[in-house]
From TrEMBL:
<feature type="region of interest" description="Disordered">
    <location>
        <begin position="1"/>
        <end position="26"/>
    </location>
</feature>
<dbReference type="GO" id="GO:0016020">
    <property type="term" value="C:membrane"/>
</dbReference>
<dbReference type="InterPro" id="IPR002293">
    <property type="entry name" value="AA/rel_permease1"/>
</dbReference>
<keyword id="KW-0812">Transmembrane</keyword>
<dbReference type="GO" id="GO:0022857">
    <property type="term" value="F:transmembrane transporter activity"/>
</dbReference>
<feature type="transmembrane region" description="Helical">
    <location>
        <begin position="290"/>
        <end position="315"/>
    </location>
</feature>
<keyword id="KW-0813">Transport</keyword>
<feature type="transmembrane region" description="Helical">
    <location>
        <begin position="465"/>
        <end position="484"/>
    </location>
</feature>
<feature type="transmembrane region" description="Helical">
    <location>
        <begin position="62"/>
        <end position="86"/>
    </location>
</feature>
<feature type="transmembrane region" description="Helical">
    <location>
        <begin position="185"/>
        <end position="204"/>
    </location>
</feature>
<protein>
    <submittedName>
        <fullName>Gaba permease</fullName>
    </submittedName>
</protein>
<feature type="transmembrane region" description="Helical">
    <location>
        <begin position="346"/>
        <end position="368"/>
    </location>
</feature>
<feature type="transmembrane region" description="Helical">
    <location>
        <begin position="216"/>
        <end position="236"/>
    </location>
</feature>
<feature type="transmembrane region" description="Helical">
    <location>
        <begin position="496"/>
        <end position="516"/>
    </location>
</feature>
<feature type="compositionally biased region" description="Low complexity">
    <location>
        <begin position="1"/>
        <end position="11"/>
    </location>
</feature>
<feature type="transmembrane region" description="Helical">
    <location>
        <begin position="424"/>
        <end position="444"/>
    </location>
</feature>
<feature type="transmembrane region" description="Helical">
    <location>
        <begin position="92"/>
        <end position="112"/>
    </location>
</feature>
Length: 566
C-alpha cells in the first residue's frame, strides 16, 4: 500500500479520488525520454495508489471497451460453449442467457464502482488489500492476485483451444466430414496460436488500440451476418416460437432444473472478459471514466446482442439436439451453419468465426500480461524481478510478462491431451478463478472497508452496497456452478470436471506458498514512487500512529522501487 493511498485512508475528510490538487506533485512521471506517457490527471490518480506512470496510455474509452468486447467475442464464445447450453434445450439456452447476463451486469456495476475510484492494472488484488482487515489483507491480496492471474491465463487457453477446434472444423467441413483431427494436432494448432499471439502482442504495440476497434467491427459484422443469413438459409425448417421459448429439455443425467442452471456457464464464460478493462487501467486515457464505461457497455452489449443470437440459433438448429451436439465436424456451431447454409456457407462463416476468435485470444493475452506485470511489480510472482521491467524497445509494454503468460498457457494447454473433459476444464477454470478474484475485493469493501471507499467519476450511489451484496451472492454461486460435471452426478474419468482439481491446485498452491514463504516478505502492493515523504509529512501524528497500527506504514515512510525499463 502506497503512502498516498494510506494517507487518504486515514484522513478524516479525504478529497475525491478525481479531485485535482492545487499543486501538482513534482514526483509524478508523465513522460520518459521525451515520450509522453499520460496526462497529469491520470498520473496523479495513479500516484495516489502509490504507482508512477510507466506504461503509455494508448487506449481511448472506445478502445478500452473494444478490448473487453473483443475478448468476449460474442458469437465465437457462444459457439465455443454450446456444449454447456444446448443440453438444457432451446428455452434453457435462451432464458439462461438472459438471466445470467443480468446477474453479470450487477457484478459489473459493483466492479465499475471500484474501477472508477481506483483504476490500476492490478486492481482486483490492490482493492482487496486496501479494503481488507489488517490481519487478512496480505493473504487475501496474495490469493486474489494468483487466482486472477491464472484465471486470465486459463481464459487465454480456453479461447485459443476454441480457436484450434474452429480452425480444424473448417478443414473437416472442406473434407466432407471424412477426416478427424487428433488431439495432438489440436494442441499443435493451439500452440501456434498462442506463440503467434505473443509475437503480435509484442510487435503491434502502437496499433493495439486500433486493433480493438477492428475487432469490434468484425464482431458486429459477424453477428449481423449470422442473424440475417441463418433464418434465410433455414427458412423451410425454422423452429417456431413455442420451441424457442418454452421447450426445456435435458440431455444430462442431472435433474432438469439443474441442467438449466448449468447452461448459465455459457454466459458466465462469454461475458467474463469485462475485467480486462481494469487491467488496462494504466494504459487508458481518463481511466476513471473509461474503465467503468468499458465494463458496463461491454456487458450490456453482450447481454442484448447475445440474447438475439441464442434466439436465432434456437430457431435455426436441428430440433434433434443430439445431432448438433454430436456433430461430426467437432463443433456444434459448424453443424448449425452447415444445416442452414450448406457447405460453402458453413466454410465462409466458420472462417470468419475463427478469425474473430483469434483476435479474442490476442486481446486476452494483452490483458493477462498486464495483470501478471502488475503482480510482479509488487513482488508476488516467482521471478518477479525478471518479469517486472518495461520494454522501451517494444513501446513501453511488459514484454517479458507477455511471453511469460504465453509460456504458462502452453503448459496449461497440455490438459487438452488428456481427455475432452480435461480440455473443458480450461473453460471452467476461467469462470471459477476469475469469479473468486472479482468476489474478494467487493466482499472486502462491504465487510471491512466501506468507510475507506471514496467514489470516483462513476458511482451507483445509495444502491452501491446492495448491488455489492447481490454481486457477492451471484459470484459464490458461479464458483460452485463451475465445479459441477456437466453430464451428470456420476462422472467417469473421461467426463469428470477437472476444474475442482485445477482450481484447488491454484488456491491451495498459492495458500501453501504464502504460509511457507510469502508471509515472511509479502506485505502487499509496493510503491514505485521515488519520493513520497511529502505526503506522509502532511499527516497528523494520530493518523501516522493509526497507519502504523494497521501495518500500512513503517516509521512514517513508504519506500518503493524506482522505474525499471529495458
Amino acid at each position: 500500500m502506497s503512502a498516498q493511498a494510506k494517507a487518504e485512508a486515514a484522513a478524516s475528510d479525504p478529497p475525491s479520488n478525481l479531485e485535482a490538487p492545487s499543486n501538482r506533485n513534482p514526483h509524478l512521471t508523465t513522460e520518459t525520454d521525451g515520450v509522453v506517457l499520460a496526462s497529469e490527471a491520470d498520473a496523479e490518480l495513479l500516484a495516489k495508489m502509490g504507482y508512477k506512470q510507466e506504461l503509455k496510455r494508448n487506449f481511448s474509452t472506445l478502445e478500452v471497451f473494444g478490448i473487453a468486447f473483443s475478448i468476449m467475442g460474442l458469437l465465437p464464445s457462444i459457439a465455443s460453449t454450446l456444449a454447456f447450453s444446448i443440453p438444457a434445450g432451446p428455452a434453457g439456452m435462451v432464458w439462461s442467457w438472459f438471466l445470467a447476463s443480468g446477474c453479470i451486469f450487477v457484478v459489473g456495476l459493483a466492479m465499475a464502482d471500484l474501477g472508477s475510484a481506483m483504476p490500476t492494472s492490478g486492481g482486483l488484488y490492490w482493492w482487496t488489500h486496501y479494503f481488507s482487515s489488517p490481519g487478512t489483507r496480505n493473504y487475501l491480496c496474495f490469493l486474489v492476485g494468483y487466482s486472477n492471474s491464472l484465471g486470465l491465463i486459463g481464459g487465454l487457453c480456453s479461447i485459443d483451444y476454441g480457436f484450434a477446434l474452429m480452425f480444424l472444423s473448417v478443414i473437416v467441413i472442406a473434407k466432407d466430414g471424412e477426416w478427424t483431427p487428433s488431439t495432438g494436432l489440436i494442441y499443435v494448432v493451439f500452440m501456434i496460436c498462442v506463440v503467434s499471439h505473443a509475437m503480435l502482442a509484442s510487435l503491434l504495440t502502437k496499433i493495439m488500440g486500433k486493433l480493438q476497434t477492428l475487432a469490434v467491427f468484425l464482431n458486429i459484422t459477424l453477428i449481423v451476418a449470422t442473424v440475417i443469413a441463418l433464418p434465410i438459409g433455414a427458412a423451410a425448417n425454422r423452429n417456431d416460437g413455442a420451441f424457442i421459448f418454452t421447450s426445456v429439455q435435458n440431455l444430462t443425467t442431472w435433474p432438469t432444473g439443474w441442467a438449466f442452471m448449468l447452461a448459465w456457464l455459457s454466459p458466465l464464460w462469454t461475458i467474463g472478459g469485462f475485467d480486462s478493462c481494469v487491467h488496462m487501467s494504466e494504459e487508458a486515457s481518463n481511466a476513471a471514466k473509461a474503465v467503468p464505461m468499458g465494463i458496463l457497455t461491454s456487458i450490456g452489449m453482450c447481454w442484448g446482442l447475445g440474447f438475439v443470437i441464442v434466439i436465432v440459433i434456437s430457431a435455426c438448429m436441428d430440433p434433434e439436439l443430439s445431432n448438433v451436439l454430436g456433430s461430426g465436424f467437432g463443433q456444434p456451431m459448424a453443424q448449425i451453419y452447415y444445416d442452414a447454409l450448406g457447405k460453402n456457407g458453413a466454410l465462409g462463416f466458420m472462417t470468419l468465426v475463427f478469425v474473430v476468435q483469434y483476435l479474442m485470444g490476442l486481446s486476452m493475452l494483452v490483458a493477462a500480461s498486464r495483470q501478471a506485470w502488475a503482480f510482479s511489480r509488487d513482488g508476488a510472482l516467482p521471478f518477479s524481478s525478471f518479469f517486472r521491467p518495461i520494454s522501451k524497445t517494444f513501446g513501453f509494454i511488459p514484454f517479458r510478462a507477455v511471453w511469460g503468460c504465453a509460456f504458462v498457457a502452453l503448459i496449461l494447454g497440455l490438459l487438452s491431451l488428456i481427455a475432452p473433459a480435461a480440455a473443458a476444464a480450461l473453460f471452467s477454470l476461467a469462470v471459477a478463478a476469475n469469479n473468486f478474484a472479482w468476489l474478494m475485493p467487493i466482499l472486502a469493501r462491504v465487510v471491512w472497508g466501506q468507510a475507506k471507499f471514496i467514489p470516483g467519476a462513476f458511482h451507483t450511489g445509495r444502491l452501491s452496497v446492495p448491488i455489492a451484496w447481490a454481486a457477492i451472492v451471484f459470484l459464490v454461486f458461479g464458483i460452485l456452478l463451475a465445479m459441477f460435471p456437466v453430464g451428470g452426478p456420476d462422472p467417469t474419468a473421461s467426463s469428470m470436471n477437472y476444474t475442482v482439481v485445477v482450481n484447488s491446485a491454484v488456491w491451495g498452491g498459492a495458500s501453501l506458498y504464502y504460509v511457507l514463504s510469502a508471509r515472511k516478505w509479502f506485505t502487499g502492493p509496493k510503491s514505485t514512487l521515488e519520493e513520497v515523504e511529502g505526503v506522509v509529512e502532511k499527516l497528523t501524528e494520530d493518523q501516522k500512529k493509526e497507519l502504523v497500527r494497521q501495518g500500512l506504514l513503517q516509521d512514517g515512510k513508504s519506500g518503493g522501487e524506482g522505474e525499471k525499463t529495458e
